Amino acid sequence: MTAVTAGTVAMVVSYAGPLALVLAAASAAGLTQAQASSWVWAVSIGAGVTCVGLSWWSRAPVITAFSTPGAAILVTALPQHGYAEAVGAFLAAGVAATALTATGVFARVMARIPAGVVAAMLAGTLFSFGTAVFTSVRSAPLLVGAMLPAYLLARRFVPTYAVVCALAAGLAVAGATGELRVDLPGLGLAVPHFTAPQFSVGALVGIGVPLLVATLAGQYAPGIAVLNAAGYRPDSRVVCGSTGLVSVLLAPFGSHAVNPAAITAAICTGPDAHRDPAKRWIAGVTCGVGYLVVGCFGSTLVALFTGLPKALVATLAGAALIGSIAGSLARTVADERDREASVITFLATASGVTIAGIGSPFWGLLTGVAAHLLLGTPKGRRSLPERGSDGPSSPVRTSQSTRTAPDGMS
Fold first, then answer.
1. By three-state DSSP, how is residue 224 classified?
2. How many CA atoms lie within 13 A of 83 on its CB side?
3. H helices of 61-104, where?
């Protein structure tokens, strides 16, 4: 039962905050309810199938999820392009992720991009969501005033349930003040909505490239690191290649990316899940089954969340991303040798600038890499010791930083 409970908690945490990002992206892009429902169905079914299948195959708690940084990127990038073009970018990113991870090229490519620059792109992308917690105070002071303390107190005493507690506090206040306008149509099954992909250079560069980099750097690497740190050694090429393949198959139905999870994986890989490490795979299967059940009723979830006050959703998403922002900022300035290039990346990304229809995440990454190449390694710092296992690029270090991030599935 402890393994079943851990898997259930991981599933609930996965949806408590990150789903708000998906719905925010869908709303910003003007998607229909059918398209939004299909998106929820696709990412849920993809995560459920891979979670159950990989956990059963490896006898390890392999937790998968949808890309939270990827969903955050889409909030600003998706409105700049047609939905069919975005689906084409999802498809291309999935194919690239599958090829890069299944062949082992991913590890070699990421080693050439400074970890601080990648982390800075993620931090800049998520920055506006963090500030939304405080800008929402003007429109809903009582709501935010209840949710933020609830989150902080839960982080202090029951960190696993911090986002859930913030959601509960927000719902209580919204219900008491009459701000809840939820009209559930009943438990209707989600209907997949197929969208024929279209391909354009703008969408491939503005959505596909940032989505690929954010998912690979912010999800794949930490997810595998969490498993390795807990003593599990499933073939990473199979784990990552499988999630990439599922992302490709479900892209026409709205799935932007399915990937190994980190924070929810930590819930299922520790001793609290089961005293016997050999039996913790049950938590992974339980989490996957929960994904499948929720995915089947995606339309109901969309109706539920669209009836919530905007300030509640904004505060919930911001609270869920505080840990991820903190971890990304820490990795941004961790290495003094690349600190300036990383800060430039962060500023360019957080600016929200759009050039030629291409969003700021891409320009931030491009600017950061260019700054890294132009600045080089200062002569006075060549004697600095290598970070080694203590550096921001260390797998174990990455997993520790990422464990504070909401994941969603992160």
1. helix
2. 21
3. 68-77, 83-102
What's the rounded Cα separation, in Å, for the pair 67 and 406? Answer: 10
What angle, rounded to 10 degrees, do the helices at 310-332 and 18-28 form? 110
d(CA 231, CA 151) in angstroms, rounded, equals: 31
Task: Name the residue among 33, 138, 25 with its Cα closest to residue 90.
Answer: 25
How much helix, strand and coil, in percent to the nearest 5, is found in the chain? 70, 0, 25
Supply the pLDDT for residue 384.
42
CA distance 10 to 122: 23
Count Cβ atoms below 10 Å from residue 146 Cβ, excluding itself: 22
Helix (H) or strand (E) segment spanning residue 310: helix 310-332
Quote the pLDDT of residue 92. 95
Q: Is 167 in contact with 16 (CB distance < 8 Å)?
A: yes
Question: Rounded to an integer, what distance in angstroms lies between the CA atom of residue 37 and that of residue 31?
Answer: 10
Q: Show the tokens assigned to 298.
A: 């995606």
SS3 of residue 64 by DSSP: strand
Give pLDDT, residue 164: 80
Task: Report the pLDDT value the prediction gives residue 396, as an integer from 0 to 100.
Answer: 39
- Tokens 């807990």 locate to 230
Q: Note whether 358 and 76 are within 8 A (CB).
A: no
Residues near 137 by beta carbon (within 8 Å), at least 6 away in sequence: 144, 145
| SS3 of residue 278 by DSSP | helix
Helix (H) or strand (E) holding 258: strand 258-260
Secondary structure (DSSP) of 346-368: HHHHHTT--BTTB-HHHHHHHHH
Distance CA(249)–CA(247), nearest Å, equals 6
How far apart (Å, rounded) are the C-alpha atoms in residues 267 and 276? 15
Is residue 344 pLDDT above 90, yes or no?
yes
Nearest partner of 213 among 45, 369, 24, judged by Cα = 369
Cα 92 from Cα 85, distance rounded (Å): 11
> What pTM did the predictor assign?
0.68
The two structure tokens encoding residue 276: 């016997």
Q: What is the DSSP letter of 188?
A: P
Angle value at C-alpha 91, between 301 and 64, nearest 5 degrees: 50
Are 104 and 244 within 8 A, CB to CB?
no
The SS3 call for residue 69 is helix
Tokens at residue 357, please?
A: 């229809």
Length of the chain (residues): 410
Quote the DSSP letter at residue 259.
E
